[in-house]
Design a protein that fits this description.
The protein is built from twelve helices and no strands. By secondary structure, the chain is an all-alpha fold. It has one domain. It starts with a helix and ends in a 6-residue tail after the last helix. The relative contact order is 0.09.
Length: about 280
């Protein structure tokens, strides 16, 4: 009798909790910034495709077709499973194609890590397009969105720079390419942008994707990143310079140009967050 009474007392509470969980499972919305990511991702995809070949293109084509068909018939759970399998096959194909580059030079480990980071972030961007994932991993959506606005542009800029230095220009000009590409890309992503997802439990409705502190960190990385790359290139290719004065002049120019371009990134909200005066 005591056990039955306990079950009767607990059962309505369990039903209420289950009803609350069922009520809260609502699609938080679709990602609204696909065009920005497509602009910077497409050239990188061509770079990766040139390293892997037609097999990757076949896997991507078949996977996209199957996911689109299942999504049309509202088979969201199955479309998520097909996407995960297709992405796993694509990841294995890419690693199988780029890992032999280690035998050429151990420095290619950086390139392999860069390509792997780009592929993983691209997978995160694609998976949040699926309603089944948005419903099952709702808590991770703000983190993925913030990563796409902060880390993903960096991977793409570095891949652009590597491709340009590998095909068109010498490695000595890589800091200047980083300076130009980074400034253009940051104009797209370091702007006030509201979150695409409405999640009342996390209170991210109408929240900014990149908060002021992270904004300042990205701006600082842009200001000093090309200079650090120039120092590394100078140390590795020091025999290419005629005199010691030449790399010092280039370093001063790159650093001053980086700091100057950083002032065009809209640092007012970062200074307002710290309570500093932005006026000169």
């Amino acid at each position: 009798m005591g056990r039955r009474r306990m079950m009767k007392a607990v059962r309505p509470r369990d039903y209420d909790d289950e009803a609350d969980r069922t009520y809260q499972v609502v699609d938080p919305g679709t990602f609204r910034y696909n065009k920005r990511l497509l602009v910077i991702s497409l050239p990188c995809f061509l770079v990766v495709l040139s390293l892997t070949g037609e097999l990757l293109l076949c896997i991507v084509g078949i996977g996209v077709t199957m996911v689109s068909v299942l999504h049309t018939y509202e088979e969201h759970e199955r479309s998520l499973v097909v996407f995960m399998l297709s992405f796993l096959m694509a990841q294995i194909t890419i690693l199988y194609s780029v890992l032999p580059l280690v035998w050429v030079s151990l420095a290619n480990l950086l390139l392999i890590g860069l390509i792997n980071g780009y592929v993983v972030m691209t997978g995160c961007w694609l998976v949040i397009q699926l309603p089944a994932f948005r419903l099952q991993a709702m808590d991770s959506l703000p983190f993925i969105e913030k990563a796409l606005f902060s880390f993903y542009p960096g991977f793409c800029v570095l891949l652009w720079t590597w491709a340009m230095c590998f095909v068109f220009v010498p490695v000595l000009y890589s800091p200047f390419l980083l300076l130009v590409f980074g400034f253009v890309v940051l104009q797209l992503f370091l702007v006030p942008a509201e979150s695409s997802f409405c999640i009342p439990k996390l209170a991210v409705k109408d929240a900014q994707i990149v908060d002021p502190v992270f904004f300042g960190l990205l701006a600082a990385m842009f200001a000093i990143g090309p200079s650090v790359v120039h120092v590394c290139v100078t140390v590795l290719l020091r025999h290419s310079y005629v005199s010691v004065l030449e790399p010092l002049v280039q370093e001063a120019f790159i650093l001053s140009a980086s700091v100057f371009l950083t002032t065009f990134l809209g640092l007012r909200k970062f200074f307002d967050h710290l309570g500093w005066s932005y006026d000169l």
